[in-house]
Automatic annotation (TrEMBL), chain A:
<dbReference type="Pfam" id="PF00005">
    <property type="entry name" value="ABC_tran"/>
</dbReference>
<dbReference type="InterPro" id="IPR015854">
    <property type="entry name" value="ABC_transpr_LolD-like"/>
</dbReference>
<dbReference type="GO" id="GO:0005524">
    <property type="term" value="F:ATP binding"/>
</dbReference>
<keyword id="KW-0813">Transport</keyword>
<dbReference type="InterPro" id="IPR003593">
    <property type="entry name" value="AAA+_ATPase"/>
</dbReference>
<dbReference type="InterPro" id="IPR027417">
    <property type="entry name" value="P-loop_NTPase"/>
</dbReference>
<dbReference type="InterPro" id="IPR003439">
    <property type="entry name" value="ABC_transporter-like_ATP-bd"/>
</dbReference>
<dbReference type="GO" id="GO:0022857">
    <property type="term" value="F:transmembrane transporter activity"/>
</dbReference>
<keyword id="KW-0067">ATP-binding</keyword>
From TrEMBL, chain B:
<keyword id="KW-0812">Transmembrane</keyword>
<dbReference type="InterPro" id="IPR025857">
    <property type="entry name" value="MacB_PCD"/>
</dbReference>
<feature type="domain" description="ABC3 transporter permease C-terminal">
    <location>
        <begin position="290"/>
        <end position="403"/>
    </location>
</feature>
<comment type="similarity">
    <text>Belongs to the ABC-4 integral membrane protein family.</text>
</comment>
<keyword id="KW-0472">Membrane</keyword>
<dbReference type="Pfam" id="PF02687">
    <property type="entry name" value="FtsX"/>
</dbReference>
<feature type="transmembrane region" description="Helical">
    <location>
        <begin position="345"/>
        <end position="364"/>
    </location>
</feature>
<dbReference type="GO" id="GO:0005886">
    <property type="term" value="C:plasma membrane"/>
</dbReference>
<feature type="transmembrane region" description="Helical">
    <location>
        <begin position="376"/>
        <end position="396"/>
    </location>
</feature>
Amino acid sequence: MTALLDLRGIGLTYPGPPPYRALRECDLTVAAGDHVVILGPSGSGKSTLLNVVGLLDRPTEGRYEFEGVDTAGLGNARRAGLRARRIGFVFQAFHLMPHRSALDNVTVALMYSGVPSARRRRTGLEMLDRVGLAHRAYALPSQLSGGERQRVAIARALAPQPALLLCDEPTGNLDSATAERILDLIEEVRAAGQTVVTITHDPVVAARGRRAVTIRDGRLTESTPAAT
Amino acid sequence: MSAAEVAPSRLRIRDLAGEGVAGLRARPARTALTALGTVLGVAAFVAVLGLTATAGGQIGKRFTALAATEVVVEDADEADRDHLDPAFTADADARVGAIRGVRAAGVWWPVGGDTAPEVGGVVLPGRSAPAQIPVIAASPGLFDAIRPGWSQGRAFDALHDRRGERVAVLGAAAARQLGVTELALRPAVFIDGVPFTVIGVLDGSARLPELMFAVLVPRHSAEEFWGRPGAGRRAKMLVETELGAAQVVAAQAALALRPDAPQRFTVVTPPDPRQLRDQVSADVGMLFLLLAGVCLLIGAVGIANTTMVAVLERVPEIGLRRALGARPWHIAAQFLAESAAIGSLAGWVGAAVGAMTVVAVALARGWTAILEPAAVLPAPLAGLVVGVVAGAYPAIRAARIEPVAALRR
């Protein structure tokens, strides 16, 4: 398997005052098709690492290669292009647009790569079908349960067929039974060949990964491989 | 893959427009309230422009052909500096009549000095002679100019006038007052004791209706007994022109009458209908247009305010869209598209409301509604401009929101 992500000596210091080193000398390689869990308590630099990996933030040190491209050499427009086509985000808070249908919430993921609207719609319906929500395509988020909302969010993340699915506490707002089903869905997606990086503080979620990395005070340490 | 092969994200114009409209449809009630101010502003603009045009058109209609073809030339002499010669020469009718566009022209003045002459009819038993009936000296051309109707007889002509014949024409009311009923008996009226044979009785006239109460005598006959027109009883000339010729005739009349002394006349022309209408538009319109402008401004502030609130409310959505590949200007364009869509919607609705107002007012007053395309068609565009201007600042603010901070909410 080739490396999808390659982080070498990544550090991020927020300019102060006082300056704050959120990440220091992080090394991480994620192979295509792998499921890596980044485990850490709150305030450990988890979210900062997610933002760097998701190209929402730039590291101040080190080298980050995404699919073999050094992201430091990319302008904001091309970084946005990678986010639109190659990275799918799943958030703890779902971040669905409240006044738009489930279908609209999925198809918006294809808008910024310039996919024509007919194809967006077709893909959106396929994706909703894939997460088992074909019958809820025209429901508003307020009419959906928490689990259904996260399914819509996963359908949105998968719609552009991204190289990387980046999950940030995907089950943080869900009860354990619903969380189980969401984790099953993520596992199912990974089994189909999708590379997944999940960031969590929840050991139950971490147990689903094929590989776990712990982050503490902005430093990454490879922990013992989780049970597969 | 190299850095150059990574394609930037993009936003198609169609999708941008779609998002703008979707933004409105998502919150219909809020959209309606946001648009309300601009709707009122645009409607006020259209209604004011339409109503001024309608009212102006109404004035234009009232402005009849009769008034538009009437020119009056007045003797402008000050009372204290009488000229030796009369302002209107004996051939005044012919001089003005020679101007192209003149149909008829006649001179007239009230006869008498400080006291009006005494007029009496045939002395019959039991009928006292009435004292005060105005006596008017008239040139024969006057009868053509006033468009008279005759109940009996005829007007005096140029021959009567030249010879100073003692003939008279009575207005309908004067004839009744004097007891003149039948011309076959050759009745006479006595003016200051001088008998004048009545040769015609007027039924009515389109111009100078006050002549119905008067006795008309040829101007030369009047001059013979009571002298020329003087202080307090200036001579005037009534000119009837072809339709549309009034302004041109007026410009030439004084010079045609007295090439040596055109300054002795003041010429009264009918007001130019167009000028009149413009004046009304200017007077009434300016104030209301100002109010409409204030209304539109308030509408714009309303849109700006709501868009600003929407931006703050939708910070997570902005963060999400940035994560999905939107660039800052995509975000700005989206909010601008939404405010522009609200503005255009307000423009369309406002134009319709304004037009309906004009029609309703015109219907209620029985007027002809006049809606200039130039007043109605730019209204939606004006709404669009208001929307874009109002949305500019919130859109810039939205574009500056950092995705990392936005997603943390």
